[in-house]
Amino acid sequence: MRKHAAWLGLSMIATLIALGSIARAALPAPTPITDELVKAATAEGKVVFYTSVELVLAEDLSKLFQEKYPGISVQVERTGSERVFQRIGQEYAANIHSVDVVNSSDASHFIYWKRNGMVQPFLSTEMAENYAPSSLDPDGAYAPWRLNISPFAYNTSLVKEADAPKSFKDLLDPKWKGKLVKAGTIMTATYETLVALGWDYFEALAKQDVMQTQSALEPPRKVASGEREVMVDGSEYFIYSLMDKGNPIKVVYPAEGVPAITSPGAMLKAAPHPNAARLFYAFLFSQPVQQVMVDKGGTRSFHKLVKDRPDHVPLAQLKLWPEDANAVEARSEEIKSRYRQLFGG
In a 10 Å sphere around its CB, with 0-12 CB exposed, 13-18 middle and 19+ buried, how is residue 32 labelled? Predict the structure, then answer.
């Protein structure tokens, strides 16, 4: 029952992302993985994957794909979501089409790509059977590859559990000045925090001399290494990955609520390896791959057959802030401008 409730909760989280589509038709007919598709993909010999997921996890998944389909190599290009978005924009402006499959932790990117006709609708048979229709783009242009949560974290060697911040208000205590790190590029988390707490909170936080990073993976790294004591926001899944390796870091879910960030995936319409793209895209959303991502990568999955990690706090016990990719896209430049005025960069 708890697993079913969690799956329903995830599908509701993704619904606002799916509703980002303005022009709607219908989900494409599911595509089975046939010998003919595998043969055509093998003839292409390669697939190029741009992603914001942690590099080691991305490479592990690529190795699994190459073990299953030994005739197809995977070229992983990993960087932060904003840089993924900028790179594709620059390449397409120059009429360069290098990427086959893309993942970003900013769902508003997919609204833009779809509106500009850049993504190719696709739905595998497994996706049709195991992902809630409400979680999928209505036209099948993109789908929720993983859910990221953006909590706090602290270095357990430097901060006692009783002293660790438990709320956003706690972060404003003068004792944390110069000891905090934040991912300035998590647009969705910033927007959700702004809706919940307002600019007054960010103005107060800016007085704390907060280190800013260019990736949601960097705050957990900075905390685990002891360079900073407390993480204001960043990738929950990477905290668990660091914990699994024995690093002194622990997650905290703030009392006021926590940003929830859908990280979709899509195929590019101008993919240079279209059959390998279909095969790899279907592979990424399959149950075995999603389970590896949860077990070894610490992510959370929208696939209804995937079991959550036992050390994850169940989603039903968290106050997840609502996600609105349309609003993020509409207000992105305004928010970035004011954010830079406060924090620099």
Answer: exposed
